Amino acid sequence: MLEEADIGTSRFAHPLSFGPADVRQRNYPISNVNPTTGNYRNSSAPSSARNSRLLNVRFPFDVSPDNSTNSLSTQNQDEMPPLPAPVQPWLNGGGGSSHSPRTSIMNVDGSSLHIMKRYMHDGVPRKMRWSKHKWLLLVANTLLFIYGLGASMLVVLTWFKLFERADTVIVGEPVLLGLVTAMGGLCLLTSLLGYTGIMLNNRGILAIYNVLLWPCFALIASVGYVSYRKNKWNLEAKLRNQWHDIFDRDDRSRVQANLRCCGYKEFTDWPERSSKCFPRTLLPGCKYKYQTLTKSGLIYTYTITFLLLPVHIFVIFVALLCSNHVNRKFGKGLPPKIYRIDYNAVGIVAADPTTKSDMLTGVRRKESQRRQYRAASKRVVTD
């Protein structure tokens, strides 16, 4: 067998060599390549001679053995231009160092072929750092959470009548109160969904988060528009019509009890009789108190919502730009196309757009020279 025979006198000499016999080139596993010298360790040889007999393997281009008397191999090797070093932008130090555990490339016996080595963790825990896009997205989502929580707390206080004029607001502004409730609830839920996507680095959740930001924007604009329009155009006539035609007896009674008044203009103008509202009462009419409360509430509402619109536009803008960069992972974890492995061409090659075409041209030239070398060697052996 080959491993039992002496390499210098083996009858299995390489047919392409002209000096001492050597072994044929075979598809040896890369795991048996010495990372220091680039030589192949013959694992099948006896342990006593394993360290002394290193098979100098050059693959995948130079199929001839490393022989000083092989003039044809030396001549072809000198004519072959070396491949440029692969560009590896994901490394901090460029190509790395051959003496470092983080080495990423290895030169095989001085040839131009670079073999990628698997990254070996050095055991030192690395400090996880967030990208600037993730921080910016977190700040924007916090703004959304703040005004969503504020609106939700306001409507909860109103519906549960936890402040003095809550009953009048419920009776007098049902449409506006419903819009504010929907706006606060949706903004709050959207912000919680955003926090989930940010912490989990989940782009799918962040995509849903981006979609939900647009209904939030529509609700904020609707609250501002409804409150501004009602306050702008003849508020006094609208409130008088509301008291006379829209309110029922229970609504008028609730407003009178909450504002401590009787009737609209005075106690004879559509009053609702109660223990405090009767013909000889000393309570004033509800017009002034009701109109003042409604006007101030509408002004505060559309001012705050119109101020929130540019803030929400900023949140949408940040979410659209930063959701896909919540971490430093490229897309689904695949490298760019120009950095993918091409086994058919050179084994393992990484290139950038400026050198890829030159590298492929050099590979094709090497393959052509290799075929010519094989044909010439066969003719010499036959003769």
TrEMBL record:
Any one annotated GO CC term: membrane
Record bears the keyword Transmembrane helix: yes
Keyword Transmembrane: yes
Compartment list: Membrane
Alphabetic keyword roster: Membrane, Transmembrane, Transmembrane helix
Residues that span the membrane, as ranges: 135-160, 175-195, 207-228, 299-322
Topology with respect to the bilayer: Multi-pass membrane protein
Main location as per UniProt: membrane
Protein name per its UniProtKB record: Tetraspanin Tsp2
